[in-house]
Specification:
There is one protein chain. It is built from four helices and two strands; from the N terminus they run αβαβαα. The protein is of the alpha+beta class. The chain has a two-stranded parallel sheet. Strand 1, helix 2 and strand 2 form a beta-alpha-beta unit. The chain starts with about 20 loop residues before the first helix and ends with a helix.
Length: about 140
């Protein structure tokens, strides 16, 4: 989901093939077993800062950065995936964990959108650009 517009930019296709389905809505309409119907997928990422963070603060940054997944993936953090963000800090400069975490979430969201929009299809599975932008 593009958080700026609410547009669904990738995912399961609608039965008519005319764009992506709203997977959360489809799951909500299915009786029992809805979550497992879509299988599993995982988002794994790393955010890094040159800021000075304690181990606990780095953990907080990782937790905050997960908001970027939630902003762009629907649903996120289900029982069938392993969505995870790791954080690391080089300790070069003083920083505020809240600022780093806030920007980390924004960067994760932007990174996911960029990855979706620039991906190439593989193995007969078309990518976003091939399906919904007429490329």
């Amino acid at each position: 989901i593009d958080p700026a517009t609410g547009e669904i930019v990738a995912g399961a296709r609608r039965p008519d093939g005319q764009g992506p389905a709203d997977t959360l809505r489809v799951m909500g309409q299915m009786a029992g077993g809805a979550s497992s119907a879509f299988g599993s997928s995982t988002v794994i990422g790393v955010v890094a800062t040159n800021g000075r963070l304690t181990k606990g603060e780095a953990n907080t940054v990782a937790q905050m950065a997960q908001d970027g997944i939630a902003r762009t993936m629907r649903p996120a953090h289900t029982m069938f995936d392993g969505d995870t963000i790791f954080a690391l800090a080089t300790g070069s400069v003083e920083t505020d964990v809240n600022v780093v975490g806030g920007y980390a979430a924004q960067m994760v969201a932007e990174s996911i959108l960029r990855a979706v929009k620039t991906a190439k299809g593989v193995g007969g599975v078309p990518a976003h650009a091939e399906l919904w932008t007429g490329a």
